[in-house]
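Figure-free illustration: sequence to structure, shown twice.
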Amino acid sequence: MRHLWILVFLIIGILVGIFGYRWYLSSPYYTLYQVKSAIKDHDWEKFCKYVDVNKASAGLARDMAKITEKALDTKEMPELLSKGLFALVIIKMRSSIKNDTKSWVMGQDQGKGALGSILPERDSAGDGKVKISLTKVTSDHDRAVAFVDLGSKEDKLELKLEMQRSERHWRIIRIANTLEIVKEVAEKSKIKD
């Protein structure tokens, strides 16, 4: 009888382990771990599997164009001209952001392009890695928001990442706190000057 109970608990333990592992593989946590791994390993293909780079860079370009539009006084400019101008800015920024992101993930061209002043620097004295830490994840059925810190304590950048469930896993689709990031970077650059 004792062996039967041991066998029952062993089977229950195995089942709990299998279901727990399957849950982890389909969770936003697994996606964030894979993104972190891709950045540390400079693996662009793996990064693109878990980050919808086209959607994320388009959203970031739109957000940055809105910030630029607010900074400029467009009241003097005809509406059609200002919309056309910012549409061109968005197109240019989107490709620049995508290229900058790829260079940063691959560990190349630090400090160049549209994201050069925003992305934290890699550890040049060490192995070229960047510190990435997950602070919080909230999820709904097919949407999630993750808060991730990039960089060191002195050069920390907090990202609010919107995620969406795809057919097999979660994907990052947008950086939701662009305005806050730009303001923080501007404040840090004022302090350095």
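We now fold a second protein in the same way, so the two outputs can be compared directly.
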Amino acid sequence: MHRFINRLLNQTTVLTLLSGAIALTASPLAYSGVTAIGTATLQYNKSKWATVAPNASNPSPAKIAYTDIHGTATGSVNYAANTNGQRWMMLQNVADQTVSSFPYPSAWQINVVDNVPITSSATYNVAMPVNCYTSSCSGWGTGYTVTTYDSSSNPGGWIGLGGSLKVSSDFNEPGGTVWWGKLALKKDTSTGVWWIYDQLHSSTVFQLVNVTETTKTCSGVDRLNIEADYKFGESDWGTFLDSYATPGTDPNTGDIDLDKVLGTFTLIPC
């Protein structure tokens, strides 16, 4: 993770590094099926995120290298653990649906002393309202995905979410971060897999697994209800970060477990 942050802070364009670019345009829907409203909640599990790359793989197991802001090894190494100074990945902050922009460097870089998880508790719930159909809900910032999902007429449509995640690592110094911003949910109808998208970079970030998808009637209207876990899986971000954690790299930045469940995700309509 932190070697990507180093490149980002050197102003490498993320869009040239990630696959699966997507269009953000939305067309009106004939609401003939189940639709989406309510609140999505992503649970940040501090321990699971911290140890998604538990050790290095050169050799395996081995300690993970710390790097400076330029990706140069500092000479210090350690295993990833859920303790200050050893978290491979952490949720450092969040933004709600009113935030339109994430200016660099003010919104990205932080002081090392502030590079700590968003919570002192074991978990933290990020609640994100579902965006409206046709156009964004009142009071939302610009650039958020309009909801277009309809189980009958548009089962692969978008479910716009009003939230962004600021992610950091203890193994990157001093305090580089990345925003996974203006999140959205979308189902790949060819595989049946639900993906959480980072729309700032037009990329998948998490895959939903162990999904229970049901219908709930709210004020006489059928709405989508989802209960699931999430992992990196073969997402754009997962495979991208994993490309910086392969055997033989110098410095060795950690061996990511792409199939590790990182927390829970729910979409509750009412």
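Summary for the second example: DSSP finds three helices and 13 strands in the chain.
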